Amino acid sequence: MELALFDLDGTLLPGDSDHAFGEFMVRLGWADGEAWRARNDGFFADYQAGRLDLPAYIDFATSAWRARPEAEALAARERFMAEVIRPQMHPQALALVRKHQDAGHLCAVVTATNEFVTAPIAQAFGVEHLIALRLARDAQGRVTGAIDGVPSYREGKIARVRDWLAGLGRTQADFSRVHFYSDSTNDLPLLEQVDSPVATNPGSALEAIALARGWPILKLFA
């Protein structure tokens, strides 16, 4: 069996679901427009530059919705899926996932974006397994704004994939080939750990690395 891992934002989606969800909070009036947008844009720029303060970002990003009733937050997420995400789900990205599924490969989305935002996105792509940033919850099950465990970000993606496979009674060595699709240099640690790294819709930095190392370059949204 082969293993196919997919980053989400910029890879299967042309945009960034985390940043877009923040913009959606502004649209709903759940966050102060210009001040929120400026901070959201600043965090996104830090992510792209590889210097994101992840705990600070998670506290900020969840603050607009985590104190609201669960039903209200879930309804907002459904609107976000319908109005923002589904229009970004291109046939080429869906076909890439289906290609691996039809070949009988074990597939997972591996993303640094939190589980609340990404669970319905992975489901919409038809991917059963999601490795996303886990949100800490209090004794009543409410999101606190902290991170639970190892975040699936940069080197943390390696640990989270390893732990996920262990939960299935497997290791990476059990697979004849491991594919990983990503657009970002933030994912270099995991790209360097797999047999088949694919720079997918890469930024200029990752494209240069892929060209130097002979990695395939896939442009789904060109």
From TrEMBL:
Superkingdom classification of source: Bacteria
InterPro entries in the cross-refs: HAD-like_SerB, HAD-like_sf, HAD_hydro_SerB1, HAD_sf
A GO molecular-function annotation: hydrolase activity
CDD domains from the UniProt entry: HAD_PGPPase
Any Pfam family: HAD
Keyword line: Hydrolase, Magnesium, Metal-binding
EC class name: hydrolase
EC identifiers of the protein: 3.1.3.-
Listed NCBIfam families: HAD-SF-IB, HAD-SF-IB-hyp1
PANTHER family per UniProt: PHOSPHATASE RV3661-RELATED, PHOSPHOSERINE PHOSPHATASE
Name of the protein in its database record: HAD family hydrolase
Lineage: Bacteria, Pseudomonadati, Pseudomonadota, Betaproteobacteria, Burkholderiales
